[in-house]
Amino acid sequence: MKEYKIHSGWQNTLHEVIYEADTPMGKIFDLLLFVLIILSVILVMLESVDEIDENYHRPLLVMEWIITGFFTLEYIARIISIKKPWKYIFSFYGVIDFISTIPLYLSYILAGSQVLIAVRAFRLLRIFRILKLVKFMGEASQLKSALKASRTKIAVFIYVVLILSVIMGTIMYLIESDEAGFTSIPRSIYWTIVTLTTVGYGDIAPETNFGQFLATVIMILGYGIIAVPTGIVTVEFSKHGKEKAGTNVVHTNTQACPSCTAEKHRDDAKHCYNCGELL
Amino acid sequence: MKEYKIHSGWQNTLHEVIYEADTPMGKIFDLLLFVLIILSVILVMLESVDEIDENYHRPLLVMEWIITGFFTLEYIARIISIKKPWKYIFSFYGVIDFISTIPLYLSYILAGSQVLIAVRAFRLLRIFRILKLVKFMGEASQLKSALKASRTKIAVFIYVVLILSVIMGTIMYLIESDEAGFTSIPRSIYWTIVTLTTVGYGDIAPETNFGQFLATVIMILGYGIIAVPTGIVTVEFSKHGKEKAGTNVVHTNTQACPSCTAEKHRDDAKHCYNCGELL
Amino acid sequence: MKEYKIHSGWQNTLHEVIYEADTPMGKIFDLLLFVLIILSVILVMLESVDEIDENYHRPLLVMEWIITGFFTLEYIARIISIKKPWKYIFSFYGVIDFISTIPLYLSYILAGSQVLIAVRAFRLLRIFRILKLVKFMGEASQLKSALKASRTKIAVFIYVVLILSVIMGTIMYLIESDEAGFTSIPRSIYWTIVTLTTVGYGDIAPETNFGQFLATVIMILGYGIIAVPTGIVTVEFSKHGKEKAGTNVVHTNTQACPSCTAEKHRDDAKHCYNCGELL
Amino acid sequence: MKEYKIHSGWQNTLHEVIYEADTPMGKIFDLLLFVLIILSVILVMLESVDEIDENYHRPLLVMEWIITGFFTLEYIARIISIKKPWKYIFSFYGVIDFISTIPLYLSYILAGSQVLIAVRAFRLLRIFRILKLVKFMGEASQLKSALKASRTKIAVFIYVVLILSVIMGTIMYLIESDEAGFTSIPRSIYWTIVTLTTVGYGDIAPETNFGQFLATVIMILGYGIIAVPTGIVTVEFSKHGKEKAGTNVVHTNTQACPSCTAEKHRDDAKHCYNCGELL
Question: Could you tell me which InterPro entries the record lists for this protein (chains A, B, C, D) (predicted)?
Fold first, then answer.
């Protein structure tokens, strides 16, 4: 028989609050986390607006410190309340949690580093963990599996789009002059994709007659090509809808195994399906 | 037995004209209302064009007074011809009717208030009540139920689009300079959504090579992502088409209960299905 | 028994050449007509290009005279070779043929009239008559019947889009200043439709923060809304594909009744299904 | 019995390496070819960027020489290792291979010719041959056959879009002035297609009220029309998915017949299905 590090009572309670959403405390914790993540991302946005940053630099910094403080405590709590800390630390969400915590500390070491802003934006990814608890995740997983099934078809599609863009971009580079914005082949390819996907900024636009004719061809191509991914995904969706009707649905809850963090246990499960640990 | 305020004859006639569209008078009333609503919205538009407002300010104002007069009378008639006035006043259309009536009166209290223009545009919503009488509302309700059924899936979809926009927008803000228009993260997110939805104004456009490369990635993502809502809605539509074939269709008429304003009574109904009042 | 004006032999031959495509002569005639229509439209285009018109005004005019001459002869031949000329003259294609013939003559009466250019472009519509003979018209009629079946749904959809555009356009007019291009409500509505349909010129673009936020909402709405017509049409297409499998196909030919110009007679028809005239 | 030129041992080995991907050597060869093709296309792109070409002209030229050398050797090897060289030389890939090899040699004859750049971009097409070996080609052929089946419908669709563009373009030319960019009918048609396909550059944009109204109509048309190809392709995809379930799948390998280059032999084939040559 396997032996696990014995968890004391407070650790079990902490585990339930942090990793699960079945108890009232767990729900409050998740809600608080949700609000703080959104808040921290809004802070990053506000700081980037020059007028706001000039006038409210101090309060913004204070709030960032509060959020960082909470994230630090949460990160430590997550480690001490789990039986196999290393498994958590190197899991996807473990790394995201760590990255979410450190930017402010790092800003004193790497003063003025712009990259830290991007790192703070990545905190948004943490939301996905909280949302896994919400009911519509079933829908999301259905979407995901439909997209997964049409993965190869979509890859072929994107591949053809790229080849087309390179060839068309090169031809447009030869036809159009530098004045119209076609200064190099990569830039022409950029223009071709802008056109093919029907985005059409207009920062670069053909000026010669033949260039405009070719642009027209690319547009109609792009207009027609968009039917392909739509067709693929639609067929895949309708397949999945039909399959689902025939499968046996198992009700799962939001518990995570205190030992290995495996999730989606059956409602009537007594042991973790992954490591056998008692739930 | 419940007791209701007894309606006199003229009140019943008024109720029939205003709330129903089965009698010739009721149809004429609805048509007149339809024309006046459209007219009042066109008036708002014309007033906003400087050249027109300068030259025709007086006739425009006169017409606005005529429309407001009619709306006022109609609003009063609606209240006195119904048995439970408060139920109407606080219903969705009751509020819309009130808001449609007051802008001109308010303009003498709140002189120069711009918001009144928007309020006048909301009159358009009144059209939906008239249209409920038109035959193609059956189709609309089919569309609505299909959209309702795919609501959660579409919410998940929009959610993913927003997360993607925030992260991509932040990265673009770091890459691109202020000159290209990426002056703050919110503005970069605005640009990302402009690109992802293939709108592509071109008021903000990446100028660096790496920025243009990332823009390309966002475009192809957006081009592919559009397949998802299309797939969802298509599958839902085809489901509803099939279900409909098996349901029992009940023919309804355009009568509204004189007591509780409940609608869509069966053609052979003698009593309101909601409050039991005789129809 | 009904009596018809007796057609002499040359009239019958002419009728066969002009109205049908089963004989070699009929095919050559249709091909010639096809080339001349395309040519006449290209002429209109070339004339509109200033550099070309300045240098080649005379040859362009000569060619226009040749085409007009042919169209005039053809129009006369169509009238004299048919038994009931008035029926042809006031038919859809009869009117189009007349309009296609007169612009050059009119240009001497209404000197410098720009509208004649548009009239000449309408000649393109004549192509549809020739194409009715081509095999893929079966496909076109399938497309058409699918679109017809989803007509009401698409009307509801466009209606909702328009209401949305008026309300959103009015709000944007209030928010954005004249400098950004939102000079009047009609122009703001124009911008809203440009945005909602994901066209996005960028000639008008929001500049305030709140305006850009609302623009973002409109874009995502437009991005999602596009799924609706696609879903409608797709479901209709798949229905029609299934129905078609069960219908009895009748083979028709390209003959037109010499008396009443009715078309799509069965291959084995001896009499016109419309007027009983011998084919 | 037919007689073939007897292949010596090294020719057979060479054939296996170059034309097949079942042996380790064949796989390495294909990978090398893949890398060189991508590299040669990147070289073309880099050369077109002025700053890069000025500073690194020499190394870029050296690399182009290395790639051309490899392609030359490969082309010769392909010819000598096959039994019927002429069949290869005039095959699609034979011509592409030849064209891929010559640009650098030609650049000494046709000094400064821009067209050679485009020719070098066509090397990308060679990738398709290598990819035929990769597993997801099955998906691609499914996509292809679905597109093929909906070919006529798509042709009708593009035809209608073009007619619409010409007529709408002509009308817009008459309405809008030269200042707005509508300088000639071809340019107006270019604008119409830009609008109809929802690309919307904004280099040309209507300025008059009526022009903007018409533009609005074109946009909503384009927004609705996009549903048609999507519907067609989706229905075709779902048909193919169903048909596939009923067909007998034959497993093929990547061998090419050493005599006639026919491909897609059954895994258990002993003779070429095309020419009977022993595999």
Answer: Ion_trans_dom, VG_K_chnl
Residue owning tokens 């003779």 = D271
Choose the closest CB to A117 out of B166, B174, B222: B174
Contact D202 B198 (CB under 8 A): no
Asked if C202 is an interface residue toward chain A (Cβ–Cβ < 8 A), one would say yes
Domain ranges in chain C? Answer: 9-132, 137-245
Does the ipTM exceed 0.85?
no
Contact between B220 and B214 under an 8 Å Cβ cutoff? The reply is no
Q: For chain D, which chains pass the contact test of at least 3 CB pairs under 8 Å?
A: A, B, C
What tokens does B66 get? 């005529």
pLDDT exceeds cutoff 90 at A161: no
Mean pLDDT of chain A, nearest integer: 79
Q: Taking a C-beta distance cutoff of 8 angstroms, is the pair C137, C169 a contact?
A: no
- The chains in contact with chain C, meaning 3 or more Cβ pairs closer than 8 Å, are A, B, D
| Cβ neighbours for B136, distance < 8 A, ≥ 6 positions apart | C152, C155, C156
B-interface mutation test, from D45, D143, D230, D232, most B Cβ less than 10 A away? D230
Instruction: Produce one character per residue of B212-242: b if its CB has 16 or more CB atoms within 10 Å, e if not.
Output: bebbbebbbbbbbbbbbbbbbbbbbbbbbee
Q: Return all residues near B202 (Cβ < 8 A) that are at least 6 apart.
A: A200, A201, A202, A203, C200, C201, C202, D201, D202
Fold equal for C9-132 and C137-245: no
| Tens digit of each residue's pLDDT (9 = 90 or more) over D27-37 | 888 888 889 98
What are the φ/ψ torsions at residue B259 (nearest 5 degrees)?
A: -100, -50
Angle at D171 between CA D166 and CA D176, to 5 degrees: 120
Phi/psi zone of residue C110: left (φ > 0), alpha (ψ -120 to 50 degrees), beta? beta
Separation between Cα atoms, residue C239 and residue C236, nearest integer Å: 5
CA geometry: angle D268, D270, D272, nearest 5 deg: 110
Taking only the tens place, the pLDDT of each residue in A18-27 is: 877 778 888 8
pTM beyond 0.90: the answer is no
Residues of A in contact with D118 (CB under 8 A): 170-171, 174
Residue C209: Cβ-neighbour burial (10 angstroms; 0-12, 13-18, 19+): middle
A137-245 is classed CATH 1.10.287.70: yes
Query: Is A9-132 in CATH node 1.20.120.350?
Result: yes
Identify the CA nearest to A23 among candidates A133, A127, A140: A133
Q: Which residue has the tokens 């182009």?
A: D64
User: What are the φ/ψ torsions at residue D278 (nearest 5 degrees)?
Assistant: -70, 135
Whole-number Å distance between alpha carbons of D257 and C50: 59
DSSP B66-127: HHHHHHHHHHHHHHHTSS-HHHHHTSHHHHHHHHHHSHHHHHHHSTT-THHHHHHHGGGGGH
